[in-house]
Amino acid sequence: MKKLFLLAIILFYSNAQSNWTFVSTVPTSPNISSISVVDQNLIWVAATAGKVYRTTDAGTTWVLRNTGLPASDLYGISALDSSSCWVGTVAGSIYRTTNGGFNWTLQLSVSGSFTNGIKMFDANYGIYYGDPTAAGQPYQLRYTTNGGTNWTLSPGAPIAGNEFGVINAWDWTDTARIWIGSANITANATTANIYKTTVGYRGGSWSTVSLTGVGGTAGLYYQAVAFTNASNGMAGSNGSNFRKTTDGGVTWQTVTNPPGLVSFAAINMVGLKDGSNTIRVSVNTTTGNFAYKTTDLGTTWISEPLPAQGTTNGLQHMQFVNSTLGYAGGNAGTFFKYSNISVNIKMAIEGLYNASTNSHNLRDTVRVYLRNNTSPYAVVDSSKTVIDSLTLIGKCVFENAPSGTYYMQFKYRSGVETWSKTGGETYSTGNSYSYNLALTASQAFGSNMVQVDASPVTFAIYSGDVNQDGFVDGSDGSLVDNDAFNFIGGYVSTDVNGDFIVDGSDAAIVDNNGFNFVGKVTP
Q1: H-helix or E-strand spanning residue 343
Q2: How far is 197 from 245, CA to CA, in rounded Å?
Q3: Cα 97 from chain centroid?
Q4: Is residue 376 reached through a cis peptide bond, with omega within 30 degrees of 0 on the bond before it?
């Protein structure tokens, strides 16, 4: 049966920006059902009419590699490198190539089944997700320990009722923890199952959780599943439903839909396993296809508008190389790239820095702006990060900036605005960078920093600009003095040294920098 259930109607607008871009259309424009991203350049795609394509230049060019494959539609693909790849068929078969797709060999054929996904963790061990052959029969949850020479049915594989699997509707955090979505094809169904194991396919222990939702005449499909770690995950359905879990899928809670998104089918989800708790979802409506991101399990959503080709053809399957780079395949052979700029910032803040411990007194938030490196130095993007008190490092992700050369502008609640060194830094989307502002004074524009430690040598942005007017002067001192007189404490900008008490130690920093006419220095 056809697995990607499309639906709905929607009226909404978004003024957000996104770094999803259209890359290319694979030859003959088949519908892409599944992709396998090996690295930033090597990607394989499975598509309709027996087509497997491979790119070694991130989708700029494609070559057809399907000798020996049937002409039927292909679903599920997993590649390890440029030579070894496994792909599934609409008829529940698995084929393997060891020579880059010049030849394919049949490994498994299960009559009456349907391939939903394949994942090879290494050259020997892999798992397979296929439809039950009929109601009352087990899901085809099979594993291999010898590269696919044998595919063994998982002990205790769930027995299906009036249901099927859904392509790409699964996720895992390791070989043991795996979650699988399903489709209840009863008309107007109000529940559908999520299957889970914490001991892996070989362990053979599966649990079933029934998720509620609103099914249409074709039933209720939970066809989008993503986890960021062993505890946190989400699932989306064809019936305008999102659900979340914080206990590894034991219990699930209702999630508020993105603003304006009323009636839709969730098509695919991807969860980043990098600690960011980021989940991306693609949805289909009668007015087009859309993409969203959440970092708090759906409490808040960020729209990530698609290029025109994506709005028309959708993101049928997404995979990410890392937090800055991902790819997706769509209908009509469309192929897309997601990229942003990630910068690990190391910085010290004068008032917070403790030379005896070589650390800050507390973790605190800094806002970093990317600005053009030519006048009038317009803001292109911004990112908020938390500077760790021990490492002095925070990660900034710039979602909207294209590749280019930029100044970074650092702003802290009681610090003097500071810019990165003269000329700016050159960044390319899809890559991660580091910038050590604390290394030398010259890392700041105009060398506008103060040395706060000799071992290790550490430079910090100046503190004391309490009112954020760009200068440390009497107006800042008055604010500190007034709060100290009134015994103000807590997380306030007049607490310059971060000990949660406004007193003479804060006033001393402000007075000293005011006496020395400290202020911002900008291009």
Answers
A1: strand 341-346
A2: 15
A3: 30
A4: yes
Let me know: does 112 contact 163? Beta carbons within 8 Å: no
Amino acid at 316: Q
Please enumerate in sequence order all residues whose Cβ is within 8 A of that of 42, keeping only pairs 6 or more positions apart, or say none: 54, 55, 56, 79, 81, 82
Q: What is the model's pTM?
A: 0.82
Determine the Cα–Cα distance for residues 267 and 223; give it in Å rounded to an integer. Answer: 6
Helix (H) or strand (E) holding 203: helix 200-203
Rounded CA separation 130/107 (Å): 14
In order, the DSSP letters of 251-263 are S-EE-PPPTT--S
Q: Do the Cβ atoms of 171 and 129 come closer than 8 Å?
A: no
Which candidate, 80, 77, 174, places its Cα nearest to that of 123? 80
Edge to edge, the sheet with strand 457-461 lists 348-349, 457-461, 450-454
State how far the Cα of 309 lies from the Cα of 313, in Å rounded to an integer: 6
With beta carbons less than 8 A apart as the criterion, state whether 348 and 452 touch: yes
Q: Which amino acid is at 305?
A: P
Three-state secondary structure call for residue 173: coil
* Alpha carbons 182 and 173: distance in angstroms, whole number: 19
Beta strand ranges found along 61-189 (DSSP E): 63-64, 74-79, 85-89, 93-97, 105-109, 115-120, 126-130, 140-144, 152-153, 163-164, 170-172, 178-181, 183-184
SS3 519: strand
Contact 141, 118 (CB under 8 A): no
Look up residue 295 and give its amino acid: T
> Nearest to residue 265, comparing CAs of 213, 230, 305?
213
**From CA 21, how far away is CA 330, in angstroms rounded?**
12
List per-residue pLDDT tens for the chain, 523 residues long. Answer: 444 444 433 333 333 445 899 999 999 999 999 999 999 999 999 999 999 999 999 999 999 999 999 999 999 999 999 999 999 999 999 999 999 999 999 999 999 999 999 999 999 999 999 999 999 999 999 999 999 999 999 999 999 999 999 999 999 999 999 999 999 999 999 999 999 999 999 998 999 999 999 999 999 999 999 999 999 999 999 999 999 999 999 999 999 999 989 899 999 999 999 998 999 999 999 899 999 999 999 999 999 999 999 999 999 999 999 888 999 999 999 999 999 899 999 999 999 999 999 999 999 999 999 999 999 999 999 999 999 999 999 999 898 888 899 999 999 999 999 999 999 999 988 888 999 999 999 999 999 999 999 999 999 999 999 999 999 999 999 999 999 999 999 999 999 999 999 999 999 999 999 999 999 999 9
The Cα–Cα gap between 474 and 486 comes to 18
Return the residue matching tokens 């990630």.
Answer: 342
**Nearest Cα to 445, choosing from 456, 468, 429, 461?**
461
Q: Do 260 and 250 touch, CB atoms closer than 8 A?
A: no
